[in-house]
Amino acid sequence: MTSGTDATAQDLATAAMKAKVNRAYADSGRDMLEEKRILDYLPLVRHIVSKIAAQVGQRADIDNLISAGTLGLVKAARNFNPARDAEFKTYAYIRIRGAVLDELRGESFVPSSVHKQVRLLRQAYQDFADTHGRPPGDNELADQLGMDVSQMYHTLEEARKQQFLSIHGLTSEGEASSHLLPVDPRETPLDQAERHELIERLIKAMRELPSRDRQIILLYYERDLTMKEIAQVFEVTEPRVSQLHASALFKLSMKLRSTE
Asked: Cα-flanking dihedrals φ and ψ of residue 71, to 5°?
């Protein structure tokens, strides 16, 4: 049951987001259908921001990201064409997420020390695979790195910030696996061809992952479950799911690199 304090905080947050919408519309006439769409999908902005912020860590400015996402929603409501675009929820999701990621573009959320750790992780993974003819398990990768498993998971969780930014095309290093996002109906034929190629590579890489790793990635990215919800599915703690997610994402990134 939601406490009175939590309910008040949520009411204030909703009021603040509505105020942002009102300011965005201050210099133009309002269309009632557009406004209804915006108000109906304001919770989607917070949901998207919370998932992205969880990946990039405490350095993310939540208020700025919510503002960017809200403006993305406003633009989606203005530009949505039912005759040409997908359903509004899908269209809004793409525009909100894109606006939030654009807000992050150019920001550095990953310390230089983490880049070095990622290189060491990749080298240890590749060395083990070259020697044994198969990818390492988590314990084996930790041994290859010469650290205990808890240290390795911490490193993987730090590395996930870089991998997350790379996945969404915000850095030049790593995989730009933008196919993890919903299909944008306004893609050019070239965009569609590139997405199709990436999807084929992703499917191949996903099939090669251990079953649990594959399930965690699908639940998080395809089913849009939170870490807490995935923890309930696997009957483990939320911190444990975070570790497993970081490990699964790292393995997927290595398999995608091997298919370049």
From this structure: -65, -35
For 12, 160, 183, 211, 229, the CA distances from 238, given in Å and listed in that order, are 28, 16, 30, 19, 8
What residue spans of 133-188 are helical by DSSP H?
Answer: 138-145, 149-167
Distance CA 192, CA 184 (A): 9
pTM of the model: 0.59
188 in the same domain as 70? no
- Please name which of 183, 121, 185, 207 lies closest in space to residue 156, comparing C-alpha atoms: 121
Average pLDDT over residues 231-257: 89
- Could you tell me if 166 and 173 are in contact, meaning their C-beta atoms sit under 8 angstroms apart? yes
What does the chain come to in residues? 260
Q: Are 129 and 243 within one domain?
A: yes
d(CA 248, CA 80): 36
Please tell me whether residue 68 adopts helix, strand or coil conformation: helix
Q: Which of 185, 187, 180 is nearest to 202 (CA)?
A: 180
